[in-house]
Amino acid sequence: MTLPGDTLQVRVEAKTAEALDICSFDLVAADGSALPAFSAGSHIDVAVSPTLTRQYSLCNDPAEQHRYQIAVLREAASRGGSSALHDRVQVGDLLTISAPKNHFPLVHGAARTVLLAAGIGVTPILCMAERLAAMGAEFEMHYCARSRERAAFANRIAASRFAGQVRFHFSDGPGAQRFDIAERLAEPEPGTHVYVCGPRRFTDEVLTVARARRWPDAQLHHEFFSAEVGPAAGDSCFEVQLARSVRVIVVPEDRTVVQALAAAGVEVQTSCEQGVCGTCLTRVLDGVPDHKDLYLTPEEQAANDQFTPCCSRAKSARLVLDL
């Protein structure tokens, strides 16, 4: 797997234990130059090895140009990314990364912003808090973690200029301090935008509650870090037609569209291969996709005019793609 687009060479300037099983990495340009600017909510692709690329949100102040900071949770079921960074990458090592990309941007001019983070999902949310505080914007932040020892950047938040706007919620703490999603999102608030990032279960619950309370999707913003991707019992063979060449390629039930296209010599840029990053997003000109991604909103999926070929399939016998 290769990084799509331009790449940067960076050096690990610092590696810090931020919480139980969470390390942060400060990355600086290998040649000592300033790094490309980034906006709150951005992430970078990191080439963990020649065959492994992973996405990590930037969690430092977007005003900084001398470094990128990421934080990595050691996953019990790691596919190789988190364990490699924790165990093998050390201060002084060189890494290849992409330029920053933002699929989770802040809406500037919101009347109020509600930031909801759970676990390692604090990384893009913390960056957003830094930016909103610098702008003097109205916001509140709720940070949920299993325990204080697992809450990365707790000391940094406590010492920040926006400490008074943050509430911590620990699963092992008294019931009264736990975050009540239904209470906070009980009624839609015109002009208020909600951002949520964390484990799938937490994010799904926030979005489900908000939509049940009739919060407009335009005011709900989320980012997933990973997804369960694999063959499903109902998967069947179908065809994709490439509109620009009129080629027809068969996608077997045990292969993804990206894999079938690659076997036919057609390359589609990919990164996460789990339907969470949007790198491979492709226009659908005809046919009905079977959406399996976590990147598109329900409304975008319902439009059926684009899909993620790294994981999504087809409900119709054929999909015509803008390729």
Automatic annotation (TrEMBL):
Keyword Iron appears in the UniProt entry: yes
Domain 2Fe-2S ferredoxin-type intervals: 238-323
Residue span, FAD-binding FR-type domain: 5-107
Transmembrane segments: none
Species per Swiss-Prot/TrEMBL record: Caldimonas mangrovi
Keyword tRNA processing annotated: no
One Pfam entry name: Fer2
Protein name per UniProt: PDR/VanB family oxidoreductase
Superkingdom of the source species: Bacteria
Listed InterPro entries: 2Fe-2S_ferredoxin-like_sf, 2Fe-2S_ferredoxin-type, 2Fe2S_fd_BS, Beta-grasp_dom_sf, FAD-bd_FR_type, FNR_nucleotide-bd, MRET, Riboflavin_synthase-like_b-brl
Keywords noted in UniProt: 2Fe-2S, Flavoprotein, Iron, Iron-sulfur, Metal-binding, Oxidoreductase
